[in-house]
């Protein structure tokens, strides 16, 4: 999120988290902790546009 110049944004108080993505294994980590999400059972048609 980018705040317009001169506007305070609390998300800018912290450095960005390290979020590497391993394309070979499909593994995403957040500051070294693996993230997991169950597969979607259904996807609405407007979301399919982004795939």
Question: What attributes characterize this protein structure?
Answer:
51 residues; mainly beta; three-stranded antiparallel β-sheet; 1 helix; 3 strands; 8% helix
What is shown here, in short?
The protein has 51 residues and is mainly beta. It has 1 helix and 3 strands, in the order βββα.
Account of the protein in words:
The chain is mainly beta. It is built from one helix and three strands. Strands 1-2-3 form a three-stranded antiparallel beta sheet, with no helix packed on it.
Blueprint of the fold:
Layout: E1 21-22, E2 27-30, E3 33-35, H1 45-48
Antiparallel strand pairs: 1-2, 2-3
Helix/strand order, N-terminal first: EEEH
Total number of β-strand segments? 3
Bin the helical content.
under 10%
Category by helix and strand content: mainly beta
- Beta-strand portion reads 15-25%
What is the terminal-to-terminal distance?
Answer: 22 Å
Gyration radius from CA atoms, angstroms: 16 Å
Largest sheet: 3 strands, antiparallel
Low confidence ranges: none
What is the residue-averaged pLDDT? 75
Net shape: extended
Strand order of the largest sheet: 1-2-3
- Helix segment tally: 1
């Amino acid at each position: 999120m980018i705040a317009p110049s001169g506007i305070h944004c609390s998300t800018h108080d912290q450095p960005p988290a390290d979020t590497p993505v391993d394309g070979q294994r499909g593994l995403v980590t957040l500051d070294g902790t693996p993230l997991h999400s169950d597969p979607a059972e259904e996807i609405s048609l407007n979301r399919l546009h982004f795939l």
